[in-house]
Structure formats: C-alpha cells, structure tokens
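Sample intake — Aromatic ring-hydroxylating dioxygenase subunit alpha
Collected from: Halioglobus japonicus
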Amino acid sequence: MSNMSTFQEGYSGLTEGRESLPSSWYRDADHYQRELRAIWYRQWMYVDRVDSLPDPGDYRIVQIGDQSIIVLRGNDRVFRAFHNTCRHRGAELLSEPRGNLAGNIACPYHGWSYDHCGDLLRAPSNFRQTDFEEKALGLYPVAIEVLRGFLFINLRPDAQPLTEGMDCGGQALANWPLEGLSVGHEYREEIACNWKLFWENFSECLHCPGIHPELSDLVPLYKRRMMEVHDDPLWQQHQAEENPRFRPGLREGSATWSADGQPCDTPFTGLSPEDLARGHTYEVSWPTAFMVGHVDYVRIVWLRPLSPVKTELCAQWLFRPETLDNAQFNPAEFAHYAEMVLGQDARAAEMNQRGLSSIAHQTGRLMAEEYEVHAFQEWVRAQLAQAEESL
C-alpha cells in the first residue's frame, strides 16, 4: 500500500478515510420504503427504447415499488405516462403488463373512461351532480421524456429535466448515432442484493483483478485496481509511460468490449479520435441506469429495486440495423463478453449482501480509490435529507 502523504494536483482519490453507509440500509424493510419514497419515486427511471411501443395505442405497465405506471403511445403517437389508478375510487385500470388500446382507457370496475391524453370522457351515474367537473378528474400524470430513442419516466409530474440528473448532462454519447440503433440482445436477471450494492460495485475497480480477470486483461489500467489514470496519486509522473497499465483505453490491438477485442462492424462514423482510443464512454444517471458507448455498439444497463435484498438487473445491446441484418452476425454470441462481466458484478454484489447480514458489521471504511462510491453514498444521503425537508 502506497503512502498517501504525497499526491499530485488532479488526483481523484480520497485523501482521508470515509465511513460507508450503515449496514442496516441494505436490509431493513422500513429503510427500503424510505428510499423508495425519497429516491425512486422522485428520480428518472429508464423504461425502454421508444420502438418497443411502435404503434398508436401501444402501452406497457412499469412497476416500481408498489407504484404501477401506464406508459402509453397515444393515438397522436405522443408518449405519455399515468398512474395506473382510476380517479373514481382508485381501482387498477390495466392489469395486463402490455398491450394495445385501440379505444379509450376504461376502468373495469365502474366504467369510467379516459382518452389517450388522460382526460376523463365518461363517468357512468344515474344522476348528474351539479359540481361534477370532468376536467378536474383526468388521470394522474407522470413525467416522461425521450432522450435520443431512450424512454424515461419520473413519478413527479414537476420533475427537473432528465439531463440535469445525468453526470455528463446527456452529452457523453453525443457522437454516437443513438436514435438510429436497434436492440439486438437483452439481459435480465433477479439478483439477491440491495440495489445500492450494484452501484457501489460499478463505482470502483479495486475488485477488478479478482472479479474481472478477462476485463482486466482487456483494460490494462484495471489491473492496477484503478478506473482512471487520475486514480494514481503520482499520475503526472507516469504520463510518458508506454506501459498500457499506466494509460487509459484498451490493450493494444483491441477496439471494443468483445471476447477478442475486435468490433462486430466498422466503427460508428462521427466518433472522435478520443472516443475511439478510450474504447468505452459512460453516461450515468443515478439511480436508474448507465449507458456505455463502444466503437461499434451501445449498451444500457438499468436497475429496478424489488425488495431490500432483491434487485432486477437488465441490459440492452444496441447495434446498427445493417449490423443486425448481417446473417453472419450473432448478437447474443457477441454480447456474451459484456454479459459475462455483468454476471461477475452481480455475483460480487450478492457476496457483499450476504456479508452485510453480520450483526457485528455496522459500517465500513472506504479506501482511496473508492471516491465514486463515496460520491454515490453522499448522493443517497442527500436525497434522503431533501425528501425529509420537503415533508
């Protein structure tokens, strides 16, 4: 372990120790509900690509905690989202997880019906009340945004713009042709861990040599347990180093995240020399998802909390349509490498969850390289505090 008494300007790491979050926050049912209310019900959540709802009337139900949300492509082709709740007495409107609404949204209980804008059209009753106003009884709206083909929702109708909560303002993948890509492979798994553990694992590379030997071979810097060159307190001294373990990017001769490091197609046009050299470019949106731009494809990985100790982990691989049209290309086979890495991360997070059951362990100690873990944990603390202040 290097002495931390000397570190150079621009160093990313933690120069002083930090405590991790309380262990109870990863298993306690009451705290889990607190996080749902303070974080997941107030932040943007990834739903799917827009072409998953291609036709007018197409809808799907998104479940987050105990909240059921209708995401609908209206007859005017505009995307809207509503709470799956009738304004009459609160009955569930739609029970099928997805489908097509050729007509209106009709409550199966008492027959109240709504158009695709969420406006109340009909409320059956034998007598008309003098103060009944249809305009005041539309469906409860949910904020929705489309970001270059990606569909997001936020349960707060007055939510801040989506890109304000993204670490690069939605611009990290500006050079990638996101709108024109199509999903070629999907991954979905229920993992036995709290949702925060997956993000914490994502946010450091101390685990990389032991958990990801194949990835550490592809990205030599990872063998040093570092995510970026600035993770080294003496990074300036190594700027002239030719050893790839002291430089960003992939190993020599490799261009992308694949079993042999070779791309499935020619690189996207429009990528900068820096984009090509890095081999992977990230855009992160806590708590829901991160996107990764590679030279030949894009991945989006997202989470959905299921319980204090269960999380749904999902991913999509997006390619150019012409790549997918190539009969010689097998997207599932090509995606296996990055899928393997995701699985390794999932097993690590589950191992972490099992250890947190110890009654002896109340909190942990973060190391210098875990500055992004600390940033994430501080963000969690801040969201909880802000939610309490707004009560």
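Post-analysis note: Residues 166 and 286 are 7 Å apart (CA to CA).
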